[in-house]
Amino acid sequence: VQLVESGGGSVQAGGSLRLSCAASGHTEMRACVGWFRQGPGKEREGVAAIHFGGVNTYYGDSAKGRFTISQDNAKNTIYLQMNSLKPEDTAMYYCVATRPGFTCTGRTAADFDYWGQGTQVTVSS
Protein backbone atom coordinates (compact mmCIF):
# COMPACT_ATOMS: atom_id res chain seq x y z
CA VAL A 1 0.00 0.00 0.00
CA GLN A 2 1.31 3.43 -0.95
CA LEU A 3 -0.03 6.54 0.75
CA VAL A 4 0.41 10.06 -0.60
CA GLU A 5 -0.71 13.04 1.47
CA SER A 6 -1.57 16.51 0.26
CA GLY A 7 -3.31 19.61 1.52
CA GLY A 8 -0.95 20.84 4.18
CA GLY A 9 0.08 24.45 4.44
CA SER A 10 0.13 27.53 6.61
CA VAL A 11 -2.96 29.03 8.15
CA GLN A 12 -3.82 31.44 10.91
CA ALA A 13 -5.36 30.29 14.16
CA GLY A 14 -9.06 29.67 13.78
CA GLY A 15 -8.69 28.70 10.15
CA SER A 16 -9.31 25.41 8.40
CA LEU A 17 -7.42 22.96 6.23
CA ARG A 18 -8.37 19.70 4.56
CA LEU A 19 -5.76 17.01 4.20
CA SER A 20 -6.09 14.27 1.62
CA CYS A 21 -4.46 10.87 1.44
CA ALA A 22 -4.57 8.89 -1.78
CA ALA A 23 -4.01 5.17 -1.31
CA SER A 24 -2.83 2.74 -3.95
CA GLY A 25 -1.91 -0.89 -3.83
CA HIS A 26 -3.98 -3.50 -2.01
CA THR A 27 -6.63 -1.02 -1.01
CA GLU A 28 -9.41 -3.45 -1.74
CA MET A 29 -8.52 -5.23 1.46
CA ARG A 30 -10.15 -3.99 4.66
CA ALA A 31 -7.79 -2.07 6.89
CA CYS A 32 -7.71 0.72 9.43
CA VAL A 33 -6.55 4.01 7.93
CA GLY A 34 -5.99 7.33 9.60
CA TRP A 35 -3.71 10.16 10.58
CA PHE A 36 -0.88 10.64 13.04
CA ARG A 37 1.02 13.83 13.66
CA GLN A 38 4.29 14.89 15.23
CA GLY A 39 4.96 18.45 16.23
CA PRO A 40 8.35 20.00 17.00
CA GLY A 41 9.67 18.56 20.23
CA LYS A 42 6.56 16.46 20.72
CA GLU A 43 5.80 12.77 20.66
CA ARG A 44 3.91 11.21 17.80
CA GLU A 45 0.17 11.46 18.36
CA GLY A 46 -2.81 9.67 16.90
CA VAL A 47 -5.26 12.13 15.38
CA ALA A 48 -8.06 10.17 13.74
CA ALA A 49 -8.81 6.82 12.17
CA ILE A 50 -11.51 5.09 10.18
CA HIS A 51 -12.00 1.55 9.00
CA PHE A 52 -11.53 1.68 5.23
CA GLY A 53 -14.95 1.02 3.75
CA GLY A 54 -16.59 1.29 7.15
CA VAL A 55 -18.34 4.00 9.10
CA ASN A 56 -16.87 4.00 12.60
CA THR A 57 -14.47 6.84 13.31
CA TYR A 58 -11.95 7.33 16.09
CA TYR A 59 -10.37 10.55 17.31
CA GLY A 60 -7.58 11.57 19.58
CA ASP A 61 -8.50 13.93 22.38
CA SER A 62 -6.96 16.93 20.64
CA ALA A 63 -9.02 16.34 17.51
CA LYS A 64 -12.44 15.71 19.00
CA GLY A 65 -14.97 18.33 18.01
CA ARG A 66 -12.66 20.07 15.57
CA PHE A 67 -11.43 17.47 13.08
CA THR A 68 -13.42 15.10 10.90
CA ILE A 69 -12.07 12.06 9.10
CA SER A 70 -13.89 10.80 6.04
CA GLN A 71 -13.30 8.66 2.98
CA ASP A 72 -14.20 8.34 -0.65
CA ASN A 73 -14.06 4.65 -1.41
CA ALA A 74 -14.38 5.18 -5.15
CA LYS A 75 -11.23 7.31 -5.10
CA ASN A 76 -9.37 5.27 -2.46
CA THR A 77 -8.86 8.51 -0.61
CA ILE A 78 -9.30 9.57 2.97
CA TYR A 79 -9.61 13.12 4.19
CA LEU A 80 -9.01 15.02 7.39
CA GLN A 81 -11.03 18.19 7.70
CA MET A 82 -9.45 20.38 10.34
CA ASN A 83 -11.39 23.35 11.68
CA SER A 84 -10.69 25.86 14.44
CA LEU A 85 -6.99 25.24 14.08
CA LYS A 86 -4.69 26.21 16.92
CA PRO A 87 -0.95 26.89 16.98
CA GLU A 88 -0.50 23.64 18.89
CA ASP A 89 -1.85 21.78 15.85
CA THR A 90 1.36 22.67 14.06
CA ALA A 91 2.94 19.37 13.07
CA MET A 92 3.85 17.00 10.29
CA TYR A 93 0.75 14.97 9.53
CA TYR A 94 1.15 11.40 8.34
CA CYS A 95 -1.41 9.21 6.64
CA VAL A 96 -1.24 5.66 7.95
CA ALA A 97 -2.75 2.26 7.26
CA THR A 98 -2.67 -1.14 8.88
CA ARG A 99 -2.35 -4.44 7.12
CA PRO A 100 -5.62 -5.88 5.81
CA GLY A 101 -7.97 -7.36 8.34
CA PHE A 102 -7.15 -5.01 11.21
CA THR A 103 -9.84 -2.98 12.94
CA CYS A 104 -9.14 0.47 14.33
CA THR A 105 -10.00 -0.28 17.94
CA GLY A 106 -7.09 0.23 20.30
CA ARG A 107 -4.47 0.75 17.60
CA THR A 108 -1.17 2.46 18.35
CA ALA A 109 1.44 3.77 15.96
CA ALA A 110 3.22 0.41 16.02
CA ASP A 111 0.16 -1.26 14.50
CA PHE A 112 0.31 0.80 11.32
CA ASP A 113 2.61 -0.77 8.76
CA TYR A 114 2.17 1.82 6.04
CA TRP A 115 3.05 5.50 6.38
CA GLY A 116 2.96 8.36 3.90
CA GLN A 117 5.75 10.89 3.54
CA GLY A 118 3.89 13.46 5.59
CA THR A 119 2.46 16.89 4.93
CA GLN A 120 3.32 19.93 7.04
CA VAL A 121 0.64 21.95 8.78
CA THR A 122 1.66 25.24 10.34
CA VAL A 123 -0.77 27.33 12.36
CA SER A 124 0.24 30.84 13.33
CA SER A 125 -1.25 32.84 16.16
Number of strands: 11
Quaternary state reads single chain
Strand content: over 45%
Main sheet overview: 7 strands, mixed
Mean pLDDT: 93
Provide the helix percentage: under 10%
The arrangement of helices and strands along the chain is EEEEEEEEEEE
Low-confidence stretches: none
From the alpha-carbon coordinates, what is the Rg to the nearest angstrom? 13 Å
Q: Determine the number of helices (DSSP H or I, runs of at least 4 residues).
A: 0
Instruction: Give the distance, in angstroms, between the N- and C-terminal Cα atoms.
Output: 37 Å
Indicate the overall shape. Answer: globular
Query: What structural class is derived from the secondary structure elements?
Result: mainly beta
Summary keywords:
125 residues; mainly beta; 7-stranded mixed β-sheet; 4-stranded antiparallel β-sheet; 11 strands; globular
Word description of this protein:
With 125 residues, the protein is mostly beta strands. It has strands spanning 2-6, 9-12, 17-24, 32-38, 45-51, 57-59, 67-72, 77-82, 91-97, 114-115, 119-124. Strands 2, 4, 5, 6, 9, 10 and 11 form a 7-stranded mixed β-sheet that branches. Strand 5 (45-51) and strand 6 form a beta hairpin.
Q: How do you describe this structure in short?
A:
This protein has 125 residues and is mainly beta.
